[in-house]
């Protein structure tokens, strides 16, 4: 059998005679200190310092890991704003990844909103002006012909998880040009912190196909290509070239498509999901996350999903993905496709989605209403608006994926109260500044009756002496476990069943938290490990598991293997190759 290539151009992980793992390195001195996958900064032992040419380059005191973590955390606390904290942690990640993940693991709940949503949104916007250090892979339309050569410049050889964006619809912030790289980085940090995929097995990618933001094009300090976005066949050719090159260099990698605008998200997913194992986080991850929360919410009401009437507002990648997931959930409860559709009302900027509207996209088609469907409805405008839909359809569950702050008004929520004392209201747009309604208002307007979840983290709401926790309905509860499971199974494809399994695992896990629709974010790692095991099992059942070694394991064994495989942040001894 041919010897597999080393993990990286600069090192390989090996075992000594007693079976202990160590890292054999072929760099030393400053080059070693500047490699974040190898650097231990002040924790290099005296022997490593001698052998690897580090003496004189770092302070004399050899820190313990505990000391390092304490120093790092205390310094972190000194950072003023959330953005400064984000930048401090990102700089740490670029210096010393093991330490970064160890600190993150110790303070996951506190730091998640800093490295991820909502603060990552700030980092996206300021990516060019605050740029410091390279991370990840980027290819633009100036150099796409050479993408395969360029991928050889990436020093790690065994990437398993890629997050790739074209930055066309970052969170609710719209086209962000090159800045979307910060999202790919943030998502992959969660893959390692919560999903157990080692940092050297991940690759953030920014696909620079241009930007339609004239202010960015006109800004000389903007770091992406200063030209309009590609579209049509040229766009497809660009992505074809990327996918082909990545599949060749990293044949075991799974791709997560992130924050593609609605016009391309569905096309890209369908075009490539059978070419390379890939899924779209905003469509499928969000769908699974929302379905899980809705299943819990219905349970809290002592009802079923099928007892609800849904309004999904925002017919983009997330909104349509969620509408599809709800339909799947309703079908699981025994409804037909048509019966399920009849309970789901999708609303976009013109109002209720209707067949006669301009630019209806393929993925929206099964959700459109015809005039004839609305007999007996009362509405004044050309199309029923959100309020009309709530009143006429008797909506009991309202979900927002518009990125429009304050879109859900008091009158809308009060209209829901006519139908149910416990309306389900999920304003899920990110970041916090784009939320469709403030959770505190929702609790107040419904006198504590609403079952609320938001996409970004919100403090629990106090109302008349009672504390109402606000669930964080974020696809972070899905993608790390789904992706890790797919990686563990070396899935040849991410099937719909695997995604549904992820949703059901999340819902089942949340059942232990009475009255809550999502678990605390501190549980993310445990959830992801369990989800990964169930997803890997589903991959086996669906015949897409290429990893032979797990195929015959029992459920318990499979979970055990995945738990043991999860990467943990601790230093391995370094030796010269
Ligand atoms: N909580 C989560 O995990 C999660 C996951 C994915 C997306 N989101 C959020 O959902 C939002 C949308 O993301 P996307 O990827 O679907 O974007 P998108 O661009 O694909 O879709 C946005 C949709 O909202 C519609 N819209 C805009 N203004 C509207 C209005 N006033 N009324 C009704 N519809 C309106 C647009 O026409 C478009 O169809 C973002 O804020 C994003 O952060 C949240
Ligand atoms: O990034 C997030 O926080 C969730 C989601 O993918 C989004 O686009 O809003
Ligand atoms: Mn997203």
From TrEMBL:
Malic enzyme N-terminal domain sequence ranges:
93-273
Q: Which Pfam families match?
A: malic, Malic_M
Keywords for this entry?
A: Metal-binding, NAD
- What residue stretches are annotated with the Malic enzyme NAD-binding domain? 283-540
- Keyword NAD belongs to the record: yes
Gene3D superfamilies with a match to the protein in the record: Malic enzyme, N-terminal domain, NAD(P)-binding Rossmann-like Domain
> Is NAD one of the keywords UniProt gives this record?
yes
| Taxonomic superkingdom | Bacteria
Q: Which InterPro entries match?
A: Aminoacid_DH-like_N_sf, Malic_N_dom, Malic_N_dom_sf, Malic_NAD-bd, Malic_OxRdtase, NAD(P)-bd_dom_sf
To which protein family does this belong? Belongs to the malic enzymes family.
Question: What is the name listed in the Swiss-Prot or TrEMBL entry for this protein?
Answer: NAD-dependent malic enzyme
């Amino acid at each position: 059998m041919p010897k597999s290539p080393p993990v990286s151009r600069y090192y390989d992980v090996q075992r000594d005679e007693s079976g202990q793992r160590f890292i054999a390195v072929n760099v030393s001195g400053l080059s070693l200190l500047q490699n974040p996958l190898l650097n231990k900064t002040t924790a290099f032992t005296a022997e490593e310092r001698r052998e690897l040419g580090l003496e004189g380059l770092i302070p004399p005191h050899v820190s313990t890991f505990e000391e390092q973590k304490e120093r790092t955390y205390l310094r972190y606390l000194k950072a003023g704003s959330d953005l400064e904290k984000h930048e401090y942690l990102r700089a740490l990640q670029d210096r010393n990844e093991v330490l970064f993940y160890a600190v993150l693991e110790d303070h996951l709940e506190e730091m998640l909103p800093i490295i991820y949503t909502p603060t990552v949104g700030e980092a996206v916007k300021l990516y060019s002006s605050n740029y410091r250090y390279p991370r990840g892979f980027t290819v633009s339309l100036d150099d796409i012909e050479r993408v395969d050569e360029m991928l050889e410049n990436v020093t790690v050889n065994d990437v398993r998880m890629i997050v790739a964006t074209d930055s066309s619809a970052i969170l609710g912030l719209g086209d962000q040009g090159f800045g979307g790289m910060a999202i790919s980085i943030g998502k992959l940090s969660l893959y390692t912190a919560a999903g157990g995929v080692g940092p050297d097995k991940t690759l953030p990618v920014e696909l620079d196909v241009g930007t339609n933001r004239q202010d960015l094009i006109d800004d000389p300090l903007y770091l992406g290509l200063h030209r309009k976005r590609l579209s049509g066949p040229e766009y497809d050719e660009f992505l074809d070239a990327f996918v082909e090159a990545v599949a060749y260099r990293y044949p075991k990698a799974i791709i997560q498509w992130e924050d593609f605008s609605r016009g391309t998200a569905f096309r890209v997913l369908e075009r490539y999901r059978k070419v390379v194992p890939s899924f779209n986080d905003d469509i499928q991850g969000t769908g699974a996350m929302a379905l899980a929360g809705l299943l819990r919410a219905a349970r809290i009401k002592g009802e079923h999903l099928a007892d609800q009437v849904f309004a999904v507002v925002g017919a983009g990648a997330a909104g349509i993905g969620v509408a599809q997931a709800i339909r799947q959930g309703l079908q699981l409860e025994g409804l037909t496709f048509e019966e399920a559709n009849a309970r789901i009302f999708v609303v976009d900027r013109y109002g209720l989605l209707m067949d006669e509207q301009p630019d209806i996209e393929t993925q929206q088609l099964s959700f459109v209403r015809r005039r004839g469907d609305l007999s007996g409805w009362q509405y004044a405008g050309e199309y029923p608006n959100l309020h009309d839909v709530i009143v006429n359809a008797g909506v009991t569950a309202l979900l927002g994926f518009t990125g429009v702050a304050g879109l859900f008004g008091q009158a809308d929520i009060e209209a829901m109260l006519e139908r149910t004392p416990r309306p389900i209201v999920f304003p899920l747009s990110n970041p916090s500044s784009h939320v469709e309604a403030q959770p505190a208002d929702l609790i107040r307007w419904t006198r504590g009756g609403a079952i609320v979840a938001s996409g970004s983290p919100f403090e629990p709401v106090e109302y008349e002496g009672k504390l109402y926790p606000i669930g964080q309905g974020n696809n972070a509860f899905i993608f790390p476990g789904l992706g890790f499971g797919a990686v563990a199974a070396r899935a040849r494809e991410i099937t719909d069943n695997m995604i549904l399994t992820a949703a059901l695992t999340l819902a089942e896990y949340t059942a232990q938290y009475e009255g809550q629709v999502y678990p605390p974010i501190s549980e993310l790692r445990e959830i992801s490990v369990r989800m990964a095991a169930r997803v890997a099992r589903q991959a086996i059942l669906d015949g897409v598991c290429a990893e032979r070694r797990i195929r015959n394991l029992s459920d318990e064994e499979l979970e055990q293997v995945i738990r043991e495989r999860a990467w943990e942040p601790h230093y391995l001894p370094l030796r010269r190759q």
